[in-house]
C-alpha cells in the first residue's frame, strides 16, 4: 500500500514536471510582439540578421545563417489571431546584405522558388522593394490576417528563401493574443538564442 502511494506520488511529480520539460515549445509573448486586444491589433518588430550583429559582437566571426530576430529555417513560428490587424516594423540589421519581408504560402524545401517575387505575396503583404532594403533602413508592413492557416514570413532577396531566411507564420481562430513558439528541434544548441 505504501508502495502504491509512493508510485502515485511519483506520477504526480512527473506530470508536474512535464510542462517544464516542454517549456521550449510553449507559446510566449516576446518583447518584440505588442498585443492590443481591444483594437484587435498586434505590433511586431522584426530585425533581419539580428543575430548576425550579435555574433559579430560576441566572437567577431561570420556565419552563413541569415535570420529574422535570430530565428531562421522555420525554427520559430509567430501565431496571430484571425481577423486581427498586423503591423510589422521591419528593420534590416545586416551589415552585409539587403533583406526584405513577405507573407507567402508554405513551401517544402524541394519546391521553394529560386527567388520570390511580388506576386508570391499573400494579401499583397511585402516590403518594397522585394529585393530588399539596406542596413538600418526600415519599412512598415500592415495587413489584416484574413484567413486562418499556415504561412511563411520570408525574405524575397535572391536565394534567401532557399537559404533558410524564413520563419513560420500562422493565423489561428479563437486565439486571444499573438504569440511566438520556438521549435527547439530545429534550433542548434551551439547557436546563441534568438531575440527574447
Ligand atoms: Cu534575406
UniProtKB/TrEMBL annotation:
Residues 64-177 form the Sulfocyanin-like C-terminal domain. InterPro entries: Cupredoxin (IPR008972), SoxE-like_C (IPR049544). SUPFAM superfamilies: Cupredoxins. This is Sulfocyanin-like C-terminal domain-containing protein. The lineage of its organism: Bacteria, Pseudomonadati, Pseudomonadota, Alphaproteobacteria, Hyphomicrobiales.
Amino acid at each position: 500500500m505504501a508502495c502504491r502511494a509512493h508510485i502515485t506520488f511519483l506520477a504526480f511529480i512527473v506530470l508536474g514536471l512535464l510542462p517544464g520539460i516542454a517549456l521550449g515549445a510553449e507559446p510566449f509573448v516576446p518583447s518584440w510582439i505588442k498585443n492590443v486586444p481591444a483594437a484587435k491589433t498586434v505590433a511586431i518588430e522584426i530585425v533581419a540578421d539580428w543575430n548576425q550583429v550579435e555574433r559579430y559582437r560576441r566572437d567577431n566571426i561570420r556565419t552563413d545563417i541569415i535570420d529574422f530576430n535570430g530565428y531562421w529555417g522555420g525554427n520559430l513560428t509567430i501565431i496571430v489571431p484571425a481577423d486581427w490587424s498586423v503591423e510589422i516594423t521591419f528593420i534590416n540589421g545586416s551589415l552585409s546584405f539587403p533583406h526584405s519581408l513577405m507573407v507567402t504560402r508554405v513551401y517544402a524545401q524541394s519546391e521553394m522558388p529560386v527567388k520570390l517575387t511580388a506576386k508570391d505575396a499573400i494579401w499583397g503583404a511585402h516590403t518594397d522593394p522585394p529585393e530588399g532594403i539596406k542596413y538600418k533602413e526600415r519599412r512598415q508592413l500592415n495587413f489584416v490576417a484574413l484567413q486562418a492557416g499556415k504561412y511563411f514570413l520570408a525574405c524575397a532577396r535572391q536565394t534567401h528563401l532557399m537559404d533558410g531566411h524564413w520563419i513560420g507564420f500562422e493565423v489561428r481562430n479563437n486565439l486571444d493574443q499573438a504569440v511566438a513558439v520556438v521549435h527547439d528541434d530545429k534550433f542548434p544548441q551551439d547557436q546563441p538564442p534568438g531575440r527574447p
